[in-house]
Amino acid sequence: MDSWSRRSPPRHQSTLFDFGGIAAIEIAGLFGMIAFVATSLAVGIRILLLAARTRLFPETTVGLSLFLAGGVGTALLIAPLFLEDPEPQTPYLLYQFGTAICHVGYGLLFVFVWRVFRREEKWALVLYAACTAGLFVGAVGMALELQPEAAMLGNFTSNSVWFWISLGARFVGYVWASAESFRYYGMLKKRLEFGLADAAVASRFLYWGVSLSAVVVIWINTAVQQLMSGSEDVRWASLLITAVLGLLVAVSLWFAFFPRRPKAVASGGVSDAAEGVAQ
User: Fold this and answer.
1) What is the number of structural domains in the chain?
2) CATH of the domain at 28
3) Between vectors from CA 81 to CA 238 and to CA 71, what angle results, nearest 5°?
4) Half-sphere exposure of 194 (CA within 13 A, CB side)
5) What is the pLDDT of residues 176-235, one digit of tens each?
6) What is the pTM of this model?
7) Does 132 have pLDDT greater than 50?
8) Which of 13, 53, 121, 56 is nearest to 274 (CA)?
9) Would 272 be classed as within a structural domain?
10) Domain span at 239
11) Nearest 10 degrees: CA dihedral of 79, 257, 61, 57?
12) Which of 15, 62, 135, 250 has the fewest beta carbons closer than 10 A?
């Protein structure tokens, strides 16, 4: 995500295995992000196809969130890494569109969490509004702050107030989402003992909570890398963490929305989880 949309320092001989001058750890980190993007697109499309049939709010918002933030937006952010001698405006436009699309996806997740889990709670409405406002203000500020010349050099992010407002909103929103997911997993697990819940729905909450928690750690990793951007050791550690977390998000999302069950039962979607919340 943000950690991959920055300028990489000049290549040098690494103590790790190298492949054509590119350290193996960088390849691993990029592989983790590609797995994250691919899984987000696959899961997002699957849920959106279901939403086209059901026309229900949960499927629509979660499907769009995954497709936009995890899929299209993140793909645009890492796209400059695959371009050789791009036109000056290309990295700038990719970053601007990618950031905007990601923030729309984040906001859709926040509205899902509020509407599905805490629709009647006033504090939840305030928290949702604050997170959404933070996303909007941070995204607009970063967009206005970035100059094409800086983007051409790969300097996509800065230690500005806009970056921290956006990151803070993301962190709080995803912590909230993961907490709600684990809370309802615990509730449904207790109901399973009495045959009052679906084990597959409970598992979806668990795996989705794991994926959201991994994203929270990605935000923390992004903050640490930003604060210690001059440290080469921190950069390598950040790339390794990105690789592990990207794969963790991909695997947990896959198990959450592509469960190994009979087809007659596996066709349910996010609305199954919403029904579990309402019980």
Assistant:
1) 1
2) 1.20.1070
3) 80
4) 5
5) 999 999 999 999 999 988 888 888 888 999 999 999 999 999 999 989 888 887 677 777
6) 0.83
7) yes
8) 56
9) yes
10) 2-7+20-278
11) 160
12) 15
Would you state the structure tokens that stand for residue 58, as one six-digit string? 């949960």
Q: Which of 137, 128, 129 is nearest to 103 (CA)?
A: 137
Least confident span in 66-70, 154-158, 172-176, 257-261? 154-158
Q: How many CB atoms lie within 10 A of CB 144?
A: 9
Domain annotation covers residue 252: yes
Q: Report the candidate in 69, 58, 67, 157 with the shortest Cα–Cα distance to residue 116.
A: 58
Reported as a single tens digit per residue, the pLDDT across 226-258 is 888 767 777 778 878 888 898 999 999 999 888
Taking each helix axis as running N to C, give the angle between helix 122-145 and helix 89-117, from 0 to 180 degrees, rounded to the nearest 10: 180
Within-domain flag for 60 = yes
Three-class secondary structure assignment of the chain: CHHHCCCCCCCCCCCCCEECCEEHHHHHHHHHHHHHHHHHHHHHHHHHHHHHHHCCHHHHHHHHHHHHHHHHHHHHHHHHHHCCCCCCHHHHHHHHHHHHHHHHHHHHHHHHHHHHHCCCCHHHHHHHHHHHHHHHHHHHHHHHHCCHHHHHCCCCCCCCHHHHHHHHHHHHHHHHHHHHHHHHHHHHHHHHCCCCCCHHHHHHHHHHHHHHHHHHHHHHHHHHHHHCCCCHHHHHHHHHHHHHHHHHHHHHHHHHHCCCCCHHHHCCCHHHHHHHHHC
Average pLDDT value over all residues in the chain: 82
